[in-house]
Design goal:
Blueprint (H helix, E strand, L loop, with lengths): L1 H8 L12 E6 L2 E7 L8 H9 L8 E6 L11 H8 L3 E6 L9 H8 L3 E3 L4 H6 L2 H9 L3 E8 L4 E3 L11 H13 L2 E5 H7 L16 E5 L13 H4 L6 E5 L5 H9 L3 E4 L9 H10 L4 E6 L1 H9 L5 E6 L10 E2 L14 E10 L2 E9 L15
Parallel strand pairs: 3-4, 4-5, 6-12, 6-13, 8-9, 8-12, 9-10, 10-11
Antiparallel strand pairs: 1-2, 1-3, 7-14, 13-16, 15-16
Length: 377
């Protein structure tokens, strides 16, 4: 199953909105073939593993697959049909299909055909592999996640606004791994103006890759400067989407579109975009996940509006101990610890002393916000 997981990770970020799945065929204790999900519309892992075998599996062959084989006839046909036709009599599965419409039915189909099915092997790892897909298939909308890189006392910058670098190179490399997974990355106008980021995935040994790059700019302040930011002019500019409101001005909207950028305009009584409206638009465009990287106001508003689904929190072994240093989250008013926002389904990883804590965001029953928080984004 670990070999199947490795095969699935080999197609990291290329299968949206479908899940990443790995499949391995074992004969006499030896791996003889493997496959991983092709990009959307292509064959699934099980079919590719059977194709890679090149001939019918030998008697006693075992199929290991990270996710329950599909049993519905989509564009590529049901994988359960291919498994039954192959003659394989034993299938070992990691995670159950999270789709509530037919989760577990694939097991029933295989068992009804006389195939032994073993489930739940490395289930936690196999489920975590597809955290974006799992959210997409169960809610019908994108996973909105945020990244925070802080000191032990929760600071993202000194009082001078200097923030490079709080976390170490290993942590920053891991951020690029998640950038490669998510179909979209989002930042606010202040981050664009201050840092001029490329918002691409840059991993050693791989070509630079660009997801959809969302710039939240309700007043289109990023368009005013005579020197436009990198995301407006680089070779990936057609993957840049500026998210704004009618308060930004149609002239600036035309300027952005003339540069080859996309612009999403959402009605709003203020300069701030409704994250609920943004989520709905992403669902319509089949963008299954967005990774928010800052700034602090943007991700705080996401949390404050109860639209943050998942958090990646990198913490470096540093202390600023300065109440004027900048924090990542603000805008809430819990009066007791049980009114705090919590993380569930936790995962922890170490990166040369930095700690990544990531998990699903759970909101308290009594959720209090500071109505005076935040000015312009």
């Amino acid at each position: 199953m670990r070999r199947a997981l490795a095969a699935a990770r080999g197609v990291w970020g290329t299968t949206h909105p479908n899940p990443m799945v790995g499949a391995v065929i074992v004969e006499d204790g030896q791996v003889v073939a493997e496959g991983a999900t092709a990009p959307d519309g292509g064959p699934h892992a099980e079919r590719l593993a059977l194709l890679a075998r090149g001939k019918p599996p030998r008697p006693g062959a075992v199929l290991y697959v990270t996710l329950e084989p599909c049993c519905t006839h989509g564009r590529t046909g049901a994988c359960t049909d291919a498994i039954i036709a192959s003659g394989i009599k034993r299938v070992v599965v990691g995670a159950t299909d999270p789709n509530p419409a037919h989760g577990g039915h694939g097991f029933e189909v295989l068992r009804a055909a006389g195939i032994e099915v073993i489930t739940g092997v490395l289930e936690r790892e196999c489920t975590d592999l597809n955290l974006i897909f799992n959210h997409w298939i169960t809610t019908g909308g994108p996973l909105l996640a945020a990244k925070a890189a802080t000191t032990l006392d929760g600071k993202i910058a000194c009082r001078t606004a200097e923030s490079r670098w709080i976390t170490n190179p290993a942590s920053r490399a891991d951020v690029h791994r998640w950038r490669k997974l998510f179909p979209g990355i989002a930042v606010g106008a202040i981050t664009i103006l201050k840092d001029n980021p490329r918002l691409t995935a840059r991993r050693e040994g791989e070509p630079e890759w660009s997801p959809w790059r969302f710039v939240f700019d309700g007043l289109l302040r990023t368009v005013v400067d005579k020197n436009p930011p990198a995301v407006f002019t680089d070779e990936f500019r057609e993957k840049t989407i500026v998210v704004t409101t009618p308060h930004g001005g149609l002239g600036y909207v035309r300027k952005l579109r003339d540069l080859g950028l996309k612009v999403w305009i959402f009605d709003s009584p203020t300069q701030r975009v409704s994250f609920a409206d943004f989520r709905k638009k992403c669902a319509e465009e089949r963008i299954s996940g967005v990774y928010f990287e800052g700034g602090a106001h943007l991700v705080s508003e996401l949390l404050r509006s109860k639209q943050l689904d998942y958090l990646f929190a990198y913490q470096a072994p540093l202390l600023f101990a300065d109440d004027k240093a900048k924090t990542i989250f603000s805008g809430l008013r819990p009066e007791k610890p049980d009114q705090a926002v919590r993380l569930a389904d936790l995962r922890h990883e170490l990166f040369d002393g930095d700690v990544l804590t990531r998990g699903r965001v759970v909101y308290p029953d009594k959720f209090q916000v500071d109505e005076t928080a935040f000015g312009a984004r």
